[in-house]
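Researcher: Let's do a round of design. I'm pasting the structure tokens now; please hold your answer until I've finished.
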């Protein structure tokens, strides 16, 4: 009786606590990319739940059917050969599950890496999202403004984030809009997102990057494009210009609040893309330079050899 009441008490407590919990952000998508990922998560949870129920059902069946019984001491169980059917099921079912989830994951990866569905014909808003210890810098090159630790975006328009870092490797993540992607110091990664409805969203660095990692967050505000344009105009009228000295000050390790500037740091500290990127080793320009250097080296050796023969 006591066990029964203890079980009911625990069940009531868990149910009461869970009713006050907000839904997980990754399961409350506000954009097409996040919706694709949320569907995959729910599909995986559903599939795993079925597997767990089947396994527990088989376990209960085996425990009941083959439980210990009163047999004589000299009882010898019959010799049973392995069942090919059982072995096929035990090996084949996991292979089918892994194959199915692999296909689903591959299809989803192609979707989230491309322009969001339904936005293919719209011009994306390009935002350079860079990070330093421990803050986020958002540069809007088309709008010629820059913000620190907060992000304003229009709804119903594709977003193209250019990610890189002025410090350790970090990870850009807005759970309700899409998955995370790394930002590194010597290259630019591109992340495609979109917001379907206005709202306030949380963004953060999802990769451990030192003692200030926990507060390496930013606020995201999605609004209709008309309001976004009004905000851009207001920034140009009220904000101070971003100078190189001020940007160097912002890069110093530490935590800051939010701030807004006209102009972007891309003018004097460009992103590591193209000829500025550390991973652009195969460019035509680099190849020509290497070829020219090789020719100059050969000419220099021939010249030295000619002088040596002349001296002799």
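Researcher: That's everything. Go ahead.
Model: Designed sequence:
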């Amino acid at each position: 009786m006591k066990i029964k009441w203890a079980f009911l008490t625990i069940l009531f407590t868990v149910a009461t606590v869970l009713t006050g919990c907000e839904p997980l952000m990754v399961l409350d998508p506000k954009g097409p990319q996040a919706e694709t990922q949320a569907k995959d998560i729910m599909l995986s949870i559903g599939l795993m739940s079925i597997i767990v129920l089947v396994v527990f059902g088989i376990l209960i069946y085996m425990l009941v059917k083959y439980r210990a019984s009163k047999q004589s001491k000299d009882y010898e169980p019959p010799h049973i050969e392995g069942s090919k059917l059982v072995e096929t099921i035990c090996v084949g079912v996991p292979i089918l599950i892994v194959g199915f989830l692999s296909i689903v994951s591959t299809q989803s990866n192609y979707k989230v890496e491309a322009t969001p569905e339904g936005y293919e014909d719209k011009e994306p808003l390009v935002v350079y999202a860079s990070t330093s210890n421990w803050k986020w810098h958002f540069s809007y090159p088309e709008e010629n403004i820059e913000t620190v630790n907060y992000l304003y975006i229009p709804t119903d328009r594709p977003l193209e984030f250019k990610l890189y870092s002025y410090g350790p490797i970090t990870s850009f993540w807005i759970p309700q809009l899409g998955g995370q992607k790394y930002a590194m110091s010597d290259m630019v990664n591109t992340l495609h997102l979109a917001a379907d409805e206005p709202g306030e969203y949380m963004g953060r660095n999802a990769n451990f990057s030192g003692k200030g990692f926990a507060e390496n967050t930013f606020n995201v505000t999605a609004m209709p494009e008309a309001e976004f344009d009004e905000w851009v105009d207001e920034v140009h009228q009220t904000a101070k210009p971003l100078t190189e000295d001020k940007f160097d000050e912002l890069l110093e390790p530490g935590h800051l609040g939010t701030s807004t500037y006209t102009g972007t740091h891309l003018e004097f500290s460009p992103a590591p893309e193209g000829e500025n990127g550390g991973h652009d080793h195969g460019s035509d320009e680099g190849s020509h330079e290497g070829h020219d250097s090789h020719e100059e080296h050969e000419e220099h050796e021939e010249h030295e050899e000619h002088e040596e023969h002349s001296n002799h």
